[in-house]
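Narrative progress, year one. The postdoctoral researcher (J.K.) led the effort to move from monomer predictions toward full complexes, under supervision of the PI. The following entry was the first complex the group processed end to end, covering 514 residues in total.
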Amino acid sequence: MVVYAGQGDPRRSIELLWRGSVTENRPGPKPGLSVDAIVDAGIAVADEQGMAFSMRAVGERLGRTAMALYTYVPGKNELVDLMYDRTMAELPTSYPLDDGWRPAVTRWAHDMWECYGRHPWVLQVSQARPVLGPHEFAVTESLATILASTGLPGRQLRGIVGAINYFVRGAAQTIAEARAAGGATGEADEEWWYARSAVLLEIEPDLEKKFPVLHRLEQDREPVDPSLPYLENDALENFRNGLRVLLDGIEAAVAKP
Amino acid sequence: MVVYAGQGDPRRSIELLWRGSVTENRPGPKPGLSVDAIVDAGIAVADEQGMAFSMRAVGERLGRTAMALYTYVPGKNELVDLMYDRTMAELPTSYPLDDGWRPAVTRWAHDMWECYGRHPWVLQVSQARPVLGPHEFAVTESLATILASTGLPGRQLRGIVGAINYFVRGAAQTIAEARAAGGATGEADEEWWYARSAVLLEIEPDLEKKFPVLHRLEQDREPVDPSLPYLENDALENFRNGLRVLLDGIEAAVAKP
DNA sequence: GTTGATTCTTTATGCCGTAAAGTAAGAGGT
DNA sequence: ACCTCTTACTTTACGGCATAAAGAATCAAC
């Protein structure tokens, strides 16, 4: 499933995101659930089953039917928006600039990376139409604040904020979805990878001759953290090295005119 | 829907990707379709309807039922893999290095960006478990070849290749999915955006005070290409500026030890 | 006590991917 | 010529999904 933010009534979605649900003294049975409880349950289910979780599963976890959720939330898309924004609330809203912007951005990126690791389904929520929730804003504001301290003009900052976001997201996807997919089929990613590349080499024996540069790139690896499995190690190494290059680019931009 | 590559029999998938289907002289009725035709139809349907296209729709476009496709292709996941790899075949396999690596990478990135723009659904195919098709390899090889000319060591190159990939993908998502979602609901992204931000400002009037840096960033814009709609302009500007910073970072890495 | 709003369940609709079974076509052997 | 076995494709059916519609139960306000 792919979730485009807020296909329903925009006002309803945004009110839920920014104001939560209002519960005055009303007639009828006391509500046994709450938007908050549903969002929490949704996150728990999605953490286990990925973005393909079902409304039934969320209802079940709360001891209700799927339809009960629709009393609190307009639909699955809106629920995912709320889950997304709640997840962003896990992140710090500001970073100390005592040692300058570079370590601050690095910490921001690592926090983000870890948050994606805890909630891989977040990576499937479309970036194109931002959820526009308060915590999503806060996370971007915190990155923008760090980078604004470089004194770069807005035009350049937008590109940089985007680049860092895309990079962290992409790097996190590489590892997080691999873990998720492994869980879905019951295979660890290691096994999956080895099985695949074995078949590939069998069917296309001169693969390495056809793509010599890629082949060479696959060489000279060193474990960054030997306790991690192979693919995670790889992803972590690439994440750190890629981020370093990106930050060097920002430094160059700061130094220039 | 999110597609994890090749959940079925890996051998069958990889054979389809690398060898195509074999059609000797066999008993039974002559095949009226082919894997190629199905992949083309799939791409056409996905270009129109996005990743949530249905096997029924692909079959219909070919004048068959959905089940007819299963004679040629093991399932929807495998079809998507084939569609993905076919799409990658649209891209050049090598770039001239006459003017050095920088313009070559820039051209690679722009070609990729445009390809994503033509086929936004490609952005939903999981990167985590690469499709492992020949054209996907070729595309990465072409980028890696350009960058290998910098003489940087493999460890660093992997991070850089990743970073560029993530960046282009992320930047393309911002614009391409906005278009797709706009088409799905019948709204142009412009309208969607304006409607949303109006409601947002109404519900949270001091938004700009709460996120002052983001607010400031939204200022000073200039149209890059006035013929493009607002959001596309924005995305294009951020793409170019972000890429420039990334390339500056690579340049710094090349200059250093 | 009655009314009407509200929570939650039940049932039903229309999608989806695809399994299973059936029908028709055609090549090879006799 | 006929038979047989494989293949292409359709039909039907199943279980899953989000969610619309209708009904049951609950409680505040009058």
